[in-house]
Amino acid sequence: MKLATFTAAGVTRIGVVRDGGIADLSVAAPELPRDMKDFLRAGDAALKRAGAAAASAPLLPLVDVVLEAPVPHPGKVLAIGLNYRDHVEESGQPLPEHQVWFNKQHNCIVGPHAEVALPSVSAFLDYEAEMCFVIGKRCKHVPAERAHEVIAGYFVGNDVSVRDWQLRTNTWQIGKSFDTHGPIGPWIVTPDEVGDPHALDIKCWVNGELRQNSNTKHLIFNCFDQVAHLTQAFTLDVGDVIFTGTSSGVGGAMKPPQFLKVGDVVRVEVEKLGAIENVVVPEIAETVIEAA
């Protein structure tokens, strides 16, 4: 099943994507939650009800709706670094002995076709094609062989990075967390449709030029290892989003480096999961202080 968060007629809700359209669950199954985190928290019964309702529901054409980030307001956004051998090599780093994790602040999350801002404070904007997944069950101390039980589904992501800010500190956090620098989507694909998540082609194009071309079989630490490792330290909650790492081909490692510019179009595609495509625009650097 493909689960999407979408906006139509000014209202945001969730639906099931099929046959080039989307079944609006607020109409087909009005008793179900209308927010993705609440829906995932409702568990297998909600998923089963959504599938049954969507099978015969009328469809809104996808071209008539705006696809939002499938998890618009995630709790934690966690990303693993240096998780493809070829990317480690191009980065000039040693192979990691342990998993290398950093936070992306939730404010970075945007939809699959949202604009990505070139920061006013940096010209070193880069892309990282990634497969992502979302946690569907609150969990702690999950062994790798049971990690599949807590993953609600998979989707496409771009771990957009501001390289000079990233490399100023060992944590990487700020350089990975600028607003708009976490496009995800286009929808969540449930594990039964994905099959083996560690056998999917993953590609990235910039302005039609193929820059990254790999397969998730090359992950150093696979998705289940990641869940096992993280949950040794802290609880993962429903709606937490995990970025699983990127392969070689990032702009900063090219010779000479090829950082993103205003007007560039970045497309990331993962087999079975779909594609996201985002245009780079200049940041409007305005002071914002909301009234109490």
Question: Would you write up a description of this structure?
Answer:
- This protein has 292 residues and is an alpha+beta fold.
- The protein has two domains: 2-67, no CATH class; 77-282, Alpha-Beta Complex (Fumarylacetoacetate hydrolase, domain 2).
- Helix content is 16%, strand content 33%.
- The protein is built from seven helices and 19 strands.
- The chain has helices at residues 25-28, 36-41, 44-55, 85-91, 163-166, 191-194, 223-233, and strands at residues 2-8, 11-18, 21-24, 60-61, 66-67, 77-81, 100-103, 109-110, 116-118, 125-126, 129-135, 151-158, 161-162, 182-189, 201-206, 209-215, 241-243, 265-270, 274-282.
- The strands form three sheets. Strands 1, 2, 3, 4, 5, 6, 7, 8, 11, 12, 14 and 17 form a twelve-stranded mixed β-sheet that branches.
- The longest helix is centred in the first third of the chain and has 12 residues, at 44-55.
- It is globular, with a radius of gyration of 18 Å.
